[in-house]
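User: quick one, fold this
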Amino acid sequence: MTPDHLLSTLHSIVGAANVLTGDACAEYESDWRRRAHGKARCAVRPGCTAEVAEVVRACAQAGVPIVPQGGNTGLVEGSVPDTSGEQIILSLRRMQAVRTIDPANMTITVEAGCVLQTLQEVAHEAGLLFPLSLGAEGSCTIGGNLATNAGGTQVVRYGNARELCLGLEVVLADGQIWEGLQGLRKDNTGYDLRNLFIGSEGTLGIITAATLRLYPQPAAQLTAWAAVPSLQAATALLALSHRHLSAALTGFEVMSQEGLRLVDQHYAHLRVPMWRETPWCVLLEASDSESEAHARAQFEHLLETAMEDGIVTDAIIAENIRQAHDLWHIRESITLAQAAEGPNIKHDVSVPISRIPEFVTQTDAQLQALAPGLRLINFGHLGDGNLHYNVQPPAGADAAAFIAAHEAAIGDVVYRSVHRFGGSISAEHGIGTLKRDQLPLYKPPVALQLMHTIKQALDPQCLLNPGRVLER
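Assistant:
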């Protein structure tokens, strides 16, 4: 099939208005951080699963690679094309429908292009809760959340995207459609195909719809902000929170002083509490099934005990929803403050919770020895062992030059340290192309062999998101 013939075929499938070329394609060709810039043959925007299947069949016949894309909010350069001009971007953004909501079964079925915030709102209107929550929820899509097995701020209670998904609809590399949307909690009929596609970053199939778990809305939800004297104290507070709150603990975030300093510098109107007097702050969230009074009593008892034990030096409990939102907004603004400060180096890692303080102490020291003056912006989901261990160039330095000179060596130090402490080089962002070459260094050879075997079996032409996760 010639390029012109393929373009004509795509026009006939989705309509000429939904096949974008040239400048019209530009917004799909760069990642959210503007670090990766590719060139696509075109961007195709199907409106339903049948159209996705037809597009995939046409590309398979022509031997043309496909890059699936949702909200394009990823951080590992996994949803934009390479620079060849040969790949096709398949955008799922038009597929936004909420197909069904089943309150009795506590499930909702949505298309892959449904924005996470929209799903949260639909569930809320039905008196239910969809608990996946992350900073990009106003623009990220469910297909992308599942393709990367997104985490977020409530993993400590509800789990990653994988734990929230009961079924999938997936278009395979040859254009076949696997219809697996049953909202079953138990289905012990062979291999778990659903989990195979979740977290595969579009390399095994294209997720077009999903059936997801819903939960009862809590009777009350409270947020607290606590100052802690050390990271060891933060992990002690986490253990204490588990004992006092049990399953009511839904969020536990840790933030370093340097990260909060950047928020205060660039967004002073947010009025960051306590950051000047303490090296770390913790943001806690509890959801209670009884009442706000019960939740507040539990929270107050927890914090009083923590202060008596010397693991909290000061704390506040949000008095209303607005105050709680403001505290969470501070946490979510760390990434934005980093961007406002200038280019930086991001690491999304996980380490066993008990080993995080030692990991940070040792890795901080190694990095300061490697590049004196660099700024370490550590924050993240301590409740599930996930740190965003980020590096900001020294104040006043040429950021681009610093990153060009030191990024590879800094990454090597961080990933070696993560591996030494029994962690993972990717906690919730995925591998994409950014970490693809690092994966063989830290993934066991047998695991890599199995991954290549699965890829070959499901995508023998290597047309689905080639060069992402695995080398071609």
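User: anything notable?
Assistant: The mean pLDDT is 94.
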